[in-house]
Queue: 3 jobs
Job 1
Amino acid sequence: MKRFIGLFVTTLLLLSSCGSVPLTGRRQVLLVGDQEVLTASLTQYDNYMKSAKRSANQTMTNQVVRVGKNIAAATETYLRTNGLESEIKNFSWEFNLVQSADVNAFCMPGGKIVVYEGIMKYIASDDELAAIMGHEVAHAVAKHSNERMSQQLMTEYGAAVLGTAISGTSSAVQNIAGTVYGLGTQYGIMLPYSRKHEYEADHMGLIFMAIAGYNPQAAVSFWQKMAQGKEGGIPEFMSTHPSDVNRITELRKYLPEALKYYKK
Ligand SMILES: [Zn+2]
């Protein structure tokens, strides 16, 4: 009977912690509160930014800020026009270009965008930069971090986590954020996203960049360059954003939908 009640409570908690992803509508389990995710990831972000050096290249920095602001505005427009304005308060945007030859970029929960100088070599236009940023922002909007933290919590703490670890500013949540981001470490290696999250971020990113006025077709050319680079043993970006041969095909499938939002 006890076990049955336990199972019942667990099921209830899981049901109550279900969410759904904007735009795609996919159901997801989110065990950590928005505020908790923001607090934990902000700590990681602050630590990272303390160790990072900002780029001295003003032109490229301006490009990152310019495109970033447009993507942020488009994302908020999307949320507002789809009855999700309550999500906007979770974003406090920041756009950074940092000194590093690594081919990488990320967006932390809360809209903290970091682009590495190394990835700018692969950027031929604002449209292509918008493809990266749209994709990264999509990970944040879709709460993929929360989902990953939830999965890690379940793996490491089991069912106990459902009742205790998530309440308050628990050390479990802080630890898990450290595991997911690893930003305190020298290389700032994040846990790779799953392919499911990658495809979802591609889909949403296309829409956000199109609303911002960038040509979504640039996402195809950008990811093609990344895929070619992988063969030569390059991008770190591909290790945190795992891909497969079907990625470009999938991207193309979403293009007609994205092009509806794109007004030149
Ligand atoms: Zn990704």
Job 2
Amino acid sequence: MKNFKVTADYHTHTFYSDGHDSVEDNVREAVSKGLEVIGITDHGFNHCMGGIKRSDIPKLRAEIERVQAKYPNIKILLGIEANLLNYDGELDIQQSDIDSLDYIIFGVHKFTFGKKVRGSFLFNARNLLWDTVKHKQKITDSYLKALEKYPVKIVVHPNYATACDVGRLARACAEKGVWFELNGKRIDFNAEEVEAIKQSGVDLVLSSDAHHSQNVGDMSLQQEFIEKYDLPLEKIVNIKIVK
Ligand SMILES: [Zn+2]
Ligand SMILES: [Zn+2]
């Protein structure tokens, strides 16, 4: 049994996007689970199920400051879960967002509103319908382009929504110092892909992707996965190993 204690949860949602609870609800849960850091990362602006509004970011920041004053023993960060929009590797963020947020995480989601209607339609349709080798490489290229263009901290739920070349993406993240997520709701890697992740030397991060506050800090799916594939705990950035 691999024993560890989770110290941070960098991927949680509130009702500013499709989460169900408030910043304070998430923080209270994080504190009760002994976390030292919590990140609020609502869905980006172009998410079809109700991403956060750009105009709400200052309001959310003010709320975080209010809650931070009440809970001084945990660090509360404001990030965003940006969407990969197209094959050019564009995300739904701009420089002013990068300046105003503490960090950026990003991934592929099933449907997003792109910058151009046609490009966005093809990108989404392929993500939904065409699971081809060629598409897999194109999606991986898009991830890599995004890693070049934006200062991101975490690639979230890789291989979810549409398949990518997991090994190639993990190697690119390792090179850039970007964390590779083991998501609390879905882990979509087969044994061969897990081996490629291990070989890449990439840093792993566990996150809950909680949409309800009670799930903040819950890494039970990852715990099982770590056991099953004997993942090296030293490569996980947000845990303390318990001897
Ligand atoms: Zn997501
Ligand atoms: Zn999420």
Job 3
Amino acid sequence: MRIAHFSDPHVLALEGVPIWRLVTNKRVTGYANILLRRAHQHRLEVVRALARDLSDQKVDHVAVTGDVSNLALETEFEAVRELLEDDLRLPPEDVSIVPGNHDRYTRGSHKARRFEGAFLPYMRSDIAMPQGVARDHYPVVKLRGPVAIVGLATGVPRLPFVAAGEVGTVQLRALEWVLRQPEVASRTLVLLTHHPIAEPAGALHAWLEGLRDADDLRRVIDRCPRGLALHGHLHRRMLRIVRTGAGEIWSIGATSASLVHSAGTRMAAYNVYEINDAGEIGRVTSRVLDTRSRTFSEAPVPVLR
Ligand SMILES: [Fe+2]
Ligand SMILES: [Fe+2]
């Protein structure tokens, strides 16, 4: 089977949003940031072109690893829904989506479960979790052929300029339960989180931007003999091999799907993963935007040591 993966489109849609919603609470810093630089880089027409190219590739499933919006506004989630329906043109059961820190930008958007409300059809789980094990939709589990796609929410509202994520004890416990189920354990794990499960960086950087309980998450998946851990957040195309007690998991990042960037590994792209019927992971490639021809062409995903 073939799984495509894109991330971080940061769709901006401010039309009809009253200015008071942008200049109160945390959004004021995000809005200022957009006015200063972001709007010039993240382009809706780029992610729409990417979705159309992906649609032509005939993949079996598409994973979207968060930061679909900029300010967690209803208008932005609506624009992303349109993108999925009109450009990607795949039924919700063939698409998995998890939130990023921008999709839970404010406490209000998190409390109202705005992201989950907007993408509910894409979050139908194939496993009924016993009462008390899971909360708020996650983990979302989709059993597809040789893989079990498991989506977690790592985005949490933070103070301005802090983008760190967290899985939290409730999701960690629920994930442990999920991984014990025979229909999951017998398949290859495809884990979706916005924040990377492994990112060697300085303590301050990790505190500001990393996944704060990444060690706990890696402990939970330590018995997996193989798998993919797909993420966004870094806006960079990369593959890092994470050793587990039973084998290895490939942690793979996608670039921002809307970002026109001078660096090749940061240019708007999506990744494609091939997995055979036995659940073995095969080719990992990217399709990257060429701004001159406005087309997408194949490129490798750099392996980081
Ligand atoms: Fe992002
Ligand atoms: Fe992010």
